[in-house]
Amino acid sequence: MSIGDPGLAEDEADLAAGSLPVAGLQLDVRARLVGAGDRARRLKVLLDRPLASYYLVLGSTLLLLAVGLMMVLSTSTAYDLDQGQPPYSMFQKQLLGAVAGLVLMWLASRAPARMLRACAYPLLLVSLIGLVLVLMAPPQDDVHRWLTVAGLQVQPSEFAKLALVLWGADLLARKERLGQLTDTRHLLVPLLPGAALMCLLVVLGKDLGTTFLLLVIFMALLVIVGTPGRVLFGMVGLMAFALLMVIVAHPYELQRLSSFLGPHPAGCSSLSCYQLIQGKDALGSGGLFGVGLGASTMKWGLLPNSPTDFIFAILGQELGLVGTVCVVALYGGLAFAGLRIARRVPDTFARLAAGAITVWLVVQAMVNMGGVLGLLPITGVPLPLISSGVSSLIVTLAAMGMLMSFARAEPGAAQALAAAGPGTHSRLARWLGLGRRAL
Asked: Which positions ≥6 away from 25 have C-beta within 8 Å?
C-alpha cells in the first residue's frame, strides 16, 4: 500500500478513534462462528453416513462396559470383604458375564432379522417358566427374584424384558402385514394379556422396578406401531392405577415412595431414606474430577447396594462431575443411534424392536440415575452395562447386538461397505460381522 493510499488513511483514522480493536474482535468472533458452523456441518455429514448408527452403538456400548467393569472392580472388593466373601469374587462373575455377553452381542449382530424373530417365542416361554420357578423357590431377602443355576444366580425377569421386546415386535409386525392394526382389539390382544401376565409374575416376586420397565416396553411398542391417542391414554391410566395398587399393597414400596416424597432428616432410619442421603453425599464429595479411581470412602459399608443400585453415586465420587457427564453422554449416544435405526430401517419388526430396546434401556438408565440424584423414587433397577449383575449385563449386551444387526439393514449400509474396497476399514467391518455374507 502506498503512502497516499486512502485505505491507509482510513486505518489510521480508525486507530486514532480506537475502533480498530473492536473491528478486530468482531472479525475474530465472526471467524469463530464460521469455524463452529463448519464443525457442525462436518459432524452432521459424519452422522449421516449409513454405518454411523452401527459404530455409535458399538463404541458407546464398549465404553460403557469398560467403565462398568472398572467401577464393579472398585466397589465389589469392599462389598465382598464386608460380606465375608473372597475379594474379587463379584468382579470375576461380572467379567465372565461380560465375556458371555460380548459373544452373544457378536452373534446377534450377525443374525438376520428373521433369525431374531424365530427366537421370540422360545425366549418368551423360557422367561415365563423361569418367572414361575422363581416364585416356587425360597425367597432371598424376602423377595423372589433369583434362581441358582450351576452356582450362579440368574434373574429371569431380565430375560423377560428382552422376550417382551421380541415377541411384541414380531406379533405387531405380523398383524400389520395382515392389515389388522386398524382394529383396537387386534392391537391389544394378545399383547396386553401377555404383558399383564409377565407383570403379574414379576410383581408377585416383589420387583416393582422391573414391572415398570415391562410396562415401558409395552407402551413403547404401542407408540411406535401408531396406536391411537385415546387408546394410549387409556393404557396409561390403567397402568398408573395398577402400579398405585401394587405400591399400596407392598409396604416396602410404599415406604420407598414416602421417603421420596417426604422430608429427609439427617437421622432418618429407613433404608431408602438413608441410601438417598448417602448417595447424594457421595456424588457431592466427588467435585469436578473426583477423588480418584478406587478412593471412594462410601463403598466401605457406608452406602448400601453400592455395586448395584447405587453404583452411579460411587462413580460420581471417584470420577467426579466429568465422569458422570461422560456416562450420561454415552447413554445419549445410544439413544440417538437407537432412535435413528428405528426411524431408518424399512422392516416393521426391526423398527419396533429397535425402538423398544432403545426406550427400555434409556428409561432404565434415567430411572437409576434419577433415583440416586433424588429426582425419582428408588426402584432398585440396575444401571445398564455398569451395575453389577450378570443377568442384566448379558441381556443388555444381547440387546445391543440386535441393535447393531438392525443397523446393518439401514439404507445404504450394504453399498457403503461394498464401496469401501480393500483396506483397514473393510477388514474391520468384516471382522465386526458387517461383510457381504453377514448382509
From this structure: none
Cα dihedral 120→122→124→125 (10° resolution): 160
Q: Residue 330: give the domain boundaries.
A: 54-410+427-431
Closest CA to 109 of 359, 416, 341: 341
Q: Is residue 41 part of a domain?
A: no
pTM over 0.85: yes
What are the tens digits of pLDDT across the range 337-392?
A: 999 999 999 999 999 999 999 999 999 999 999 999 989 988 889 999 999 999 99
**Cβ neighbours of residue 227 under 8 Å, at least 6 residues apart?**
187
What is the tens place of the pLDDT at every residue in 277-326? Answer: 889 999 999 999 999 999 999 998 889 889 999 999 999 999 999 999 99
Q: Are 313 and 282 in contact (CB under 8 A)?
A: yes
Q: Does residue 253 sit within a domain?
A: yes
According to DSSP, the residues that pair with 48 across neighbouring strands are: none
As given in the structure block, the three cell numbers for residue 8 are 491507509
Task: Give the chain's domain count.
Answer: 1
Task: Name the residue type at position 189.
Answer: V
Instruction: Give the DSSP H/E element, type plus range, for residue 396.
Output: helix 390-407
Backbone angles phi, psi at 140, to 5 degrees: -120, 120
Residues 389 and 155: beta-carbon distance below 8 Å:
yes
Q: Is residue 189 part of a domain?
A: yes
Is residue 438 helix, strand or coil?
A: coil
The one-character DSSP state at 301 is T
Measured CA to CA, the distance from residue 20 to residue 14 in angstroms comes to 5
Alpha helices (H) along 295-373? 311-344, 348-373
Q: Which residues of 288-302 are buried (b: 16+ CB within 10 A; e: fewer)?
A: eebbeeeebebbeee
- CA 389 – CA 393 distance, rounded (Å): 6
The residue type at 154: V
Q: Does the residue 420 lie in any domain?
A: no
The 3-state DSSP class for residue 147 equals strand
